[in-house]
Amino acid sequence: MTALGILHPGHSADDDYPRLEQLLGSDIRVDVVRADIDDPEPLARAVEQLRLAGAEAVVWAGTRESFTPGWTGAQGRVRALAMTAGLPASSTSLGFVHAAAEVAARRVAVAAPYTGTEAAEFAGFLRAGGLEVTAVHAETATGWDEARLLALTRAADTPDAEAVLVPGTSLRTVAHLPALEDALGKPVLTAHQVTVWEALRLTDRRVNAPRLGALFTREPIVQV
Question: Sheet holding 58-60: strands in order across?
């Protein structure tokens, strides 16, 4: 059993995690605990809860919160989290950079459920991580069903983009990954999907789960 610890800043779309756990298979557990990374005492209690549950790695699942400190600041926060948890640690934003490398995408488009300023800030974070951002499309809305998600990703996509990145842990995207990738013909990376993949990466696990998109079909395959 591989146990993954997720620190979630709120409740938005956190029902994506049970779906992810189900699609990953019976030997992977995804434990989600609410925590504010900027509040030391509740954070310490949260990571202790995950540690006692057997978590082998912990990821801060707040995209916006984890890219606003900038590239250097984000790495510093992760180092501090690792020290607090006594476990390998990362964040959703850093996970996007690592996940893009996993699917061999150096040029990416950003489809963000943010304001234009926030989306541009995320794009700057990605560039600091070594990615080329071909386009940024920002759109704030509610009720993100599959059709609206598809419209969002299509609006951001460009012919030279090798993947489309959809930040925002407020979006439920896991059920729609196959449809989005089929429509665009390229990998689509979304926040909860990337967060769990990043936790698996920290534990040296690679899982073959095609219903979770191209990110979960890379070699080496550990689980069939």
Answer: 28-34, 2-8, 58-60, 89-91
Beta bridge partners of 30: 4
pLDDT surpasses 90 at 36: no
pLDDT digits (tens, 9 = 90+) for 60-103: 998 888 899 999 999 999 999 999 999 999 999 999 999 999 99
The pTM assigned to this predicted structure is 0.94
pLDDT tens digit sequence for 45-60: 999 999 999 999 999 9
- For 1, 99, 119, 124, the CA distances from 206, given in Å and listed in that order, are 14, 12, 30, 28
* Mean of pLDDT values over 169-183: 94
**In angstroms, what CA-CA distances link 156 with 137, 139, 148, 153?**
5, 10, 13, 5
User: 4 phi and psi, to 5 degrees?
Assistant: -115, 135
Per-residue b or e along 124-141, where b marks 16 or more CB atoms closer than 10 Å to that residue's CB: ebbeebebebbbbbbbee
pLDDT of residue 11: 67
Among 38, 56, 58, smallest CA distance to 47 is for: 58
Q: How far is the C-alpha of 75 from the C-alpha of 89, rounded, in Å?
A: 10
β-sheet bridge partners, residue 89: 58
Q: What is the CA radius of gyration of the chain?
A: 16
In terms of Cα–Cα distance, which of 23, 42, 21 is closest to 33? 42
Which residue from 18, 188, 4 is spatially nearest to 90, judged by alpha carbons?
Answer: 4
The 8-class DSSP code of residue 37 comes to: T
